[in-house]
Amino acid sequence: MKGASVVPITVAGLKSACSQCNLQELCLPFGLDHTEIDRLDELVATRRKVKRQQHLYRAGEAFEAIYAIRTGSFKTDVILEDGREQVTGFQMTGEILGLDGISSEHHSCNAVALEDSEVCIIPFAKLEELSREVEALQHQFHKVMSREIVRDHGVMMLLGSMRAEERLAAFLLNMSQRFTARGFSPAEFHLRMTREEIGSYLGLKLETVSRAFSRFQEDGLVSVQQKHIRILDIPGLKKLMHHPQFT
Amino acid sequence: MKGASVVPITVAGLKSACSQCNLQELCLPFGLDHTEIDRLDELVATRRKVKRQQHLYRAGEAFEAIYAIRTGSFKTDVILEDGREQVTGFQMTGEILGLDGISSEHHSCNAVALEDSEVCIIPFAKLEELSREVEALQHQFHKVMSREIVRDHGVMMLLGSMRAEERLAAFLLNMSQRFTARGFSPAEFHLRMTREEIGSYLGLKLETVSRAFSRFQEDGLVSVQQKHIRILDIPGLKKLMHHPQFT
DNA sequence: GACCCTGTTTGACCTGGATCAAACAGCGAT
DNA sequence: ATCGCTGTTTGATCCAGGTCAAACAGGGTC
């Protein structure tokens, strides 16, 4: 499915990007007709491979493009002067990276690949240009940005109002749901991030994350083997979220 | 400056909205030339007054417009089934409300006036239409959305990685900076929200917020009288944020 | 195979902020 | 002036999650 390793495809390279991509319905092309997708294709002519642990961009760098994840996954984080790191999100295929850079023309966070990954480069000036002509693209782009805002509000809810086990349950259910949307099993998946990264995202220490996993396993909610997760009781996890203290 | 009380101005009413508004540089008109602002004016023809404690919109309601705050201030919040509330933000004049609704065509949070306020109604379909024609408007709108994303990341940092007093210091410095941008004193202002709302926003209980205020006062960093705040030592507050544990 | 290195699990203890509770202050209504 | 209501402050106690520490597991390298 994913061509063995066609590194940075030059504009002259194979021109089939979005039109051939099976992530259309999760990504920018959603809602566009064939002709419109072809126009988007011209724009998204180049890709970039990012190896595990490498940065796609760093806070402070000039902003020029947004990125759509073709394969792999990323984390975004913000780092304080004193070194404290806050993971602001985990991104999977079809999701858009870099929206934070529009406001100041500089990226405001770091994007790091959690595994060897590939992104489509979408030059932002060109995207604005095309979305002035293609209504459906404009609208879809606005939805993508808005979705990011809604997602962020969910994370705030999580960080501000939930206890440790609720946070982890919410996280697992969210991952499950996103894997499902990509055609994978809702119940069994491989986490690409460490306990520490999960902890940073959830506002917890890695030990607390680990303990919560163990507790879930004891309670028969999930089966955990390192990064391999099998969710055994989705309703159980959901209930846990709505009844903070064990009923 | 603000006409005594011209309630919901009908489209036929006085047509001077953005072009006469002294919040231009904080709001959507930023970067537009005169002719462009006139076109925006046609779009932003109606306003709405919202009394203290009243909702501008509620989670679940159909999304039709975004709102620019003309006078007053708001909070936005998300409420869980079990009643837990998370305040996701406090908004002041010139700031835009409702962006969360674009993604699903329904609002995903509540917007409540913290004092008697007035907003400009910006029908979203029309805004998209106009921003397809006016490049500067399109770009400014994208910046506004992106700024919201960046702001949200800052809140995550706050909720996920900072201790109570750092959070309150960050909050006060942020308020100070926003009042300054509006031509008010950086050092002395009136908070429109309760301790409980601040607490919800910062992921703390109101008692903790109150105690942190008292501590700041003891340490000579601020002078607090109910909702009236006078910041005495801005560098001191900043230092506190970077050195979590006292020195 | 033995080694190392990174990430994970588990235990013991500690503490920052939550919880519970009471007093207090401002303010609108009568 | 008095009442009552909402919001705030302060004190006393508790506990969820942090901290410190040790053992362990997997996966790559020589």
> In the CATH hierarchy, what is the superfamily of the largest domain in chain A?
Jelly Rolls
By oligomeric state, this entry counts as homodimer
Share of β-strand residues of chain A:
15-25%
Helix content of chain A: 25-40%
| Structural class category of chain A | alpha+beta
Count structural domains of chain A: 2
Can you tell me the CATH topology of the largest domain in chain A? Jelly Rolls
Greatest chain-chain contact: A-B, 49 and 49 residues
What does this protein structure show overall?
The structure is a homodimer of 247-residue chains. In chain A, the strands form three sheets. Chain A has a four-stranded antiparallel β-sheet. A four-stranded antiparallel β-sheet of chain A has the order 2-7-4-5. The first copy, chain A, has two domains: 18-156, Jelly Rolls; 162-242, Arc Repressor Mutant, subunit A, CATH 1.10.10. Helix content of chain A is 38%, strand content 21%. With 247 residues, chain A is α+β, with helices and mostly antiparallel strands. The radius of gyration of chain A is 19 Å and the shape is globular. In chain A, helix 2 (124-133) packs across helix 3 and helix 5 crosses helix 6 (206-218). Chain A has seven helices and eleven strands. At the A-B interface, strand 5, helix 2, helix 3 and helix 5 of A face strand 5, helix 2, helix 3 and helix 5 of B. Chain A binds a DNA duplex (30 and 30 nucleotides) through residues 163-164, 194-196, 204-208, 210-211, 213-214, 226-227.
Summarize the structure in short.
With 247 residues, the first copy, chain A, is an alpha+beta fold. Chain A has helices at 34-43, 124-133, 135-161, 164-181, 195-202, 206-218, 234-242, and strands at residues 46-50, 55-57, 65-71, 74-79, 85-91, 96-97, 110-113, 117-123, 188-190, 222-225, 228-231.
